Automatic annotation (TrEMBL), chain A:
Boundaries of every BFD-like [2Fe-2S]-binding domain copy: 7-58
Protein name stated in the entry: BFD-like [2Fe-2S] binding protein
Pfam annotation, one family: Fer2_BFD
Higher taxonomy: Bacteria, Bacillati, Bacillota, Bacilli, Bacillales
InterPro entries from the UniProt entry: BFD-like_2Fe2S-bd_dom, BFD-like_2Fe2S-bd_dom_sf
TrEMBL record, chain B:
Organism (species): Scopulibacillus darangshiensis
One Pfam family hit: Pyr_redox_2
Keyword tags: Oxidoreductase
Alphabetical list of InterPro entries matching this protein: FAD/NAD-bd_sf, FAD/NAD-binding_dom, Metab_Enz_Cyan_OpOx_G3PDH
The FAD/NAD(P)-binding domain, residue ranges: 3-150, 232-344
GO molecular function: oxidoreductase activity
Protein name: Sarcosine oxidase subunit alpha
């Protein structure tokens, strides 16, 4: 399957291979994958790729998915113009 | 101050708003879409009794009832943050200003799960739900000829709607097999999950065959092994369980897909690759509860795959452990619109009872029973283990 270069995080253009390589090297959490690769750190707030990241972390670590949400949701949870966020 | 703020004007949110207002609560509903109804707006299917379920009509009925009760609506309003102020009331931050209320019901429904496939970032690739909204809500064809990737209840139901809308589709095929399509790319797994919707099959023979296959792994193996490459037609739509898309191709936008035949385990049969010209592709990896706001409110979660993933902890009255925070509809787990309506009604009564405006517990009891009976009688179960998933939440 030639999926190595398929993009997982569309906002930050992070590929399947980059995430897998990170997991192979560090066997880390979703949050660490995010901090190392920027996957799920983009414009959409991880809405498209967070479950892919969580799935890959579960696959590589062979641990079941936890009840806690792995990648914290942060406001604003919708794209907003700066003027809406505050200021004059 | 408003008694109850409701985020989401879908079947759950509208039903809850009606129940709140009928019990004397001042109620406000917010939704980011320009029309009320949520996912009801896309729905059109035939029930076993031959009557068509027209989601647009159902949405309009609920909206008119809500309007008659003087419920205030803020459509095209995106809630981007929320906070509890002084531990007493909720403030919603939106792109149209702030709104405050004593109680908060989050009925934000579900979001679609896509599947990463080579070429899936090309213009012309969309989620199956996007194609549904284009056709059923905006009356626009998504393209001239398309293909659906991902075989499940949702994609089969929407593909049928697209056919009814006059959209040309090659059929429904599997995604390529790799780590991120596990359970959705092996013909034997997908076949097994399809058997749970065999009661919807158009022919009596298929219904009997399906029931036998559900009970016998030998028949299942035989059936997957002999499954024809062209697929079986369900509602006039070929479901090609032995075909996969290995790549979506095109320069500036979708020009075609590379398809290949696979064996029962999803291995590609060498030399079977061919290119099909299509100008749009719909990907369907299922639905998951859209719970961003619930999470920001500090509610704990449980991971229950049969309900679609992470769902907010809540009790059988739709109340969360966070005081004044309620949930209803698909945000609590992926089920049909009818279950969402029953949950919304229950949540509305539950919020009203906190204000001591529902004197008898009988109404609540009836509403709880209605959720359970609607769930048990549901025509389509998005996951065969929904009842088990619900037991993990409610005990």
């Amino acid at each position: 399957m030639e999926n190595e270069n398929v993009i997982i995080c569309r906002c930050e253009e992070v590929t399947f291979k980059e995430i897998c390589d990170t997991l192979k090297q560090y066997n880390c959490s979703s949050r660490e994958v995010k901090l190392r690769t920027r996957a799920a750190m983009g414009y959409c707030g991880g809405r498209s790729c967070r479950s892919f990241v969580d799935t890959l972390v579960a696959e590589f670590s062979r641990r079941p998915r936890a009840d806690d949400v792995q990648l914290k949701y942060r406001p604003p949870v919708r794209p907003m113009p700066f003027k809406t966020l505050g200021g004059e | 101050m408003i008694d109850c703020l409701i985020v989401g004007a879908g079947p759950a949110g509208l039903s809850a708003a009606i129940a709140c207002a009928e019990n004397g609560l001042s109620t406000m509903v917010l939704d980011e879409f320009m029309k009320p109804g949520g996912r009801l707006l896309g729905q059109l299917h035939e029930e076993p009794n031959g009557i068509w379920w027209n989601g647009i009509d159902e949405a309009e009925k609920l909206y008119q009832r809500a309007k008659a009760l003087s419920i205030s609506f803020h459509l095209e309003t995106s809630v981007c943050h929320l906070e509890k102020v002084d531990g007493k009331y909720w403030t919603l931050h939106t792109d149209k200003g702030k709104f405050s209320g004593k109680n908060l019901l989050i009925a934000t429904g579900a979001a679609e799960q896509s599947l990463p496939i080579p070429g899936w970032t090309l213009p012309g690739v969309m989620s199956i739900g996007a194609a549904q909204v284009m056709a059923n809500v905006h009356r626009v064809k998504p393209g001239h000829r398309g293909i659906v990737i991902g075989v499940n209840v949702l994609s089969a139901a929407i593909a049928r709607e697209l056919l009814l809308a006059g959209v040309n589709l090659e059929g429904i095929v599997l995604p390529p097999r790799y780590l991120l399509t596990k359970g959705q790319s092996e013909p034997k797994d997908v076949f097994q999950s399809l058997l749970h919707m065999v009661h919807l099959a158009p022919s009596h023979l298929m219904k009997i065959g399906g029931k036998m296959a559900l009970k016998s792994s030998f028949i299942r193996k035989m059936a997957v092994g002999t499954y024809p490459k062209k697929g079986f037609k369900v509602w006039g739509m070929p479901i090609k369980l032995k075909q996969t898309v290995t790549e979506i191709i095109g320069k500036e936008n979708v020009e075609g897909v590379k398809v290949a035949s696979v064996d029962s385990s999803g291995n590609i049969i060498e030399g079977s690759e061919e290119i099909l010209p299509v100008d749009f592709v719909c990907i369907s990896g299922g639905l998951y509860p859209l719970a961003e706001l619930v999470s920001l409110a500090g509610c704990p979660f449980k991971y229950i795959p049969s309900l679609g993933g992470h769902v907010p902890v809540h009790d059988h009255n739709m109340q969360t452990p966070v005081e004044g925070l309620y949930v209803a509809g698909n945000v609590t787990g992926i089920e049909s619109a009818k279950v969402a309506m029953a949950q919304g009604h229950l949540a509305g009564l539950s919020i009203s009872s906190q204000k001591n405006k529902v004197s008898d517990g009988e109404a609540l009891q009836n509403a709880r029973e209605s959720v359970v009976s609607t769930r048990t009688n549901a025509l389509i179960h998005f996951h065969p283990d929904i009842l088990d998933g619900r037991r993990r939440l409610y005990g």
